[in-house]
Design a protein that fits this description.
There is one protein chain. The chain has 181 residues and is mainly β. Among the domains are: 81 residues, heat- and protease-stable fragment of the bacteriophage t4 short fibre, domain 3, CATH 3.90.1340; 41 residues, no CATH class.
């Protein structure tokens, strides 16, 4: 590896931070032992700013560019150190688009002959003889059979994670102090 900038973050495929690096897991570091790194990142990621400061926690996180907190046109503003998102989400009925669930329920109604699922002009099931005996001729209208479909689901969270590959993030605690232009 070339000499890193102090505070540089890299993604690695191995399981440990090499000498001069620490894992980006939100751990607290001593200011007195890492004063140069503290001068660069301060307490953006945590710590009390008196004796400790934290390195970023990249555990279950995806980095997003902050550009100093200045968003471009149509982009959200994420000041450096801001965390957000969640690994699982519970959808509420108000978050779902209006939609229907078509259904078909066999009526087995008939005025005579073969049973049908179409209610228009038919009688329910084997009550046809009863209706015919009364002479009322009570046929069903096309909209006579209605139903309500209750919301489905059980308000349990579902995963909200894009396909991922777990890698390790490390931050340089030793290296070249970056100069500003």
């Amino acid at each position: 590896m070339s000499t890193p900038y102090l505070g540089e973050i890299r993604v690695v495929g191995f399981t440990f931070p090499p000498v001069g690096w620490v894992s980006c897991n939100g751990q607290l570091l001593s200011i007195s032992e890492n004063d140069a790194l503290f001068s660069l990142i301060g307490t953006i990621y945590g710590g009390d700013g008196v004796t400790t400061f934290a390195v970023p926690s990249m555990n279950s996180r995806v980095g997003i560019g902050s550009q100093g907190g200045l968003a471009g046109p149509g982009l959200s503003n994420y000041p450096q150190g801001t965390v957000g998102g969640t690994e699982s989400v519970t959808l509420q009925a108000t978050q779902m688009p209006v939609h229907g669930h078509p259904y078909s329920a066999p009526l087995q109604g008939s005025t005579a002959g073969s049973a049908t699922d179409d209610p228009a002009g038919n009688r329910p099931g084997n009550l046809a003889a009863t209706y015919a005996a009364t002479g009322n001729g009570k046929n069903l209208a096309a909209n006579a059979v209605t139903a309500n479909i209750s919301p489905a689901g059980s308000s349990q969270a579902h995963p909200n994670v894009s396909p991922v590959l777990a890698l390790n993030y490390i931050i340089a605690t030793e290296g070249i102090y970056p100069s500003q232009p």
